[in-house]
Write the structure tokens for this entry.
Amino acid sequence: MKGSGFLSKIGSLLFTLWLLSLVSFFLIRMIPGDPVRLMVGDRGITEESYQEIKKNLGLDKPILFQYKDYVVKLAKFDLGTSFITRVSVWDEFKEKLKATAELSFFAMLIAISVGLLLGIYAAVKRGTIIDKALMTGSVVGFSMPIFWWGLILILYMSVRWGLTPVSGRISAITDIESVTGFMLIDAWFSDEPWAAFKDAVSHLILPSVVLATVPLASIARMTRSSFVDVLSEDYIRTAYSKGLTRSKVYFKHALRNALLPVITVIGLMMGALLTGAILTETIFSWPGLGRWLLAGVESRDFPVIQAGIFLIGSLVMILNFLIDIIYKWVNPRLRV
């Protein structure tokens, strides 16, 4: 049974990867616009030069032959070269991934820590004005457009009050050598580590808060609902009858069981972070995967779009697989 289940998961994974390759290849080609014309811009070129560029880019072949070449290269983990920068797509992806990973990590850290606390507090105060206010706020946070929320924070936090920088990962005057690609870590290798670290953190605050808003609201609502259900169970009343304190009942007995559905939401929100990162990185000029993909779409840079969609989709699947493992670790009944 276990072997067949494992093979089923592998088959499902391979099928999903194939669908990703189809989507990443054909979707961008459905968008109007000739990548060669976009590359040369307003410069006039002869028909011979135009056809030569198409041939060099591999765009002169029938589309099915192009897809076959793409899949063959993908099987060899050859993601191609960007039409625009002429740099390996894999090298660009690795560099941009570091910026997005740093932003997503702190956004998820905010979402999980604050979301759990607010959800638990709302459950403990269920039925009160505090509970209603927190849940109303979570609905507003979940429904709030990211681009609008980001612009509002920039207007007040950056422009009016001057508390945080407007955009970017680091100030232009701060000299930081890229050692790891993670700005907070690289800051400690600079000449003035504490000043550079504070500068990097100040740039990270606003985009992290904006990106964390939707997952925070979802985690808070699910935590509150799950915690309320768990508090009504018989074993919770038994724990109280044994003389245990409220804090011990909440955090030792109730929290672990209440976390089961929350973990699923966290897994789904990790995938949603990559979607939200496109808007967030555009608003805050954050040099990550979101801006990289958007620039690729605008220039019809096929290798960038194909590799970006495929690799990001693969990352989401890996995250879901890890969440599944964590879920089974938290819930022993699923290990059998």
